[in-house]
Write a structure and sequence with these properties.
Elements (H helix, E strand, L loop, with lengths): L3 E8 L2 E15 L4 E7 L3 E6 L2 E5 L3 H15 L5 E6 L4 H6 L7 E5 L3 H10 L1 H4 L7 E4 L3 H6 L5 E7 L13 H10 E10 L7 H14 L2 E8 L7 E8 L22 H7 L4 H6 L1
Parallel strand pairs: 6-7, 6-9, 7-8, 9-10
Antiparallel strand pairs: 1-2, 2-3, 3-4, 4-5, 10-12, 11-12
The chain binds 1-{4-[(3-aminopropyl)amino]butyl}guanidine.
The site of 1-{4-[(3-aminopropyl)amino]butyl}guanidine has 14 residues, from strand 5.
Amino acid sequence: MRGIWFSELQTPDLAISVRLNQTLHHEKTPYQELAVVDTEAYGRMLLLDNIIQTTVKDEFFYHEMIAHVPLNTHPNPRTALVIGGGDGGVVREIVKHPSIEKVTLVEIDARVVANAREYLPEIACGLDDARVEIRFEDGIEHVRQRENTYDIIIVDSTDPIGPAVGLFSAEFYRNVYRALKADGVFVAQTESPIFNSRLIRRIQRDLKEIFPIARLYLTTVPTYPGGLWAFSLGSKKYDPLEVDWRQAPQVATRYYTPAIHQAAFSLPPFVQEFL
Ligand code: AG3
C-alpha cells in the first residue's frame, strides 16, 4: 500500500483504513485528541481519539436520518436541543425546517466547533443560522436542569466510552423525558446493530419503560463499524410510522425521503431477534 494510511480500530478485530492526502490539523483539547485529515476516498474527516466522527462524503446519511426522522414525526417542531454534534451537521439539517424557532447546541468541547468551522465549512454552515444558540457545557447536566422545554432532543454523541457513557444511561433518558414538552420526540445515535446488539437491546428496553412509544430505525453509514447504523427514538405522543406526509415540510436532502423514513423502521430479522 503506497502513501500514509489512517486506520481506526473499529473493534479489537476490525479496522477501517483510508489513505491520507494530508493531515490538516491535530491538537489535544481539554477533552480529547482531535484531528482533521483529508482523504482520497471520503474527503475531509473529523477524528476524535482516532475514531471517525464524520466525513464530507458520507456525513449526509447520518445527519439527515438523525434529524429529519424526529422533526417530521413532530407535526410542528419549534424548539430543538442537540447534545454533542459540535461539527454542526445535525444543526444544518434542523434549520432546514421552517417551523424551527430555536436550536440549542450543547457541545462539551469548544474546539470541535472551532475546527469544524475552519476545516469542515460545508458541515458546520448551519451553526451560523440566527436561530442557533451554542453552549459549551455538559449535555447531561443541561438536560438534568430542564423541564418541559424542548419539542425535539437529539443526541449526536461519540461512542459509549469515556465522557459519553452517561448519554446512554436510563437515568439520562428519564431526564430527557422531563426536558421534553408533553408531545416531544427524542432520538439518539445508538451504534452498530452488528457489533453493539446488546447495547441497542438494553437501550430499547429502557426507552420502552420511559416513553409510550419507543422504536429503532436504521441507516447505512459507510465509514462506521459494520456500515449499518442504529438510531433509538422515544416519543411522548407521535408515532414516527404515522406521519401525515401531506403536512410535512419540503426540505432538500440527499438521502432522506418519506419512503426511506418509513422503510428505516422495517427491521431485518437478525435485528428483531436480538431486541
Ligand atoms: N457521532 C459519532 C458516531 C459514532 C461513530 N463511531 C465510530 N466511527 N466508531 C457522529 C458525529 C457526527 N456529527
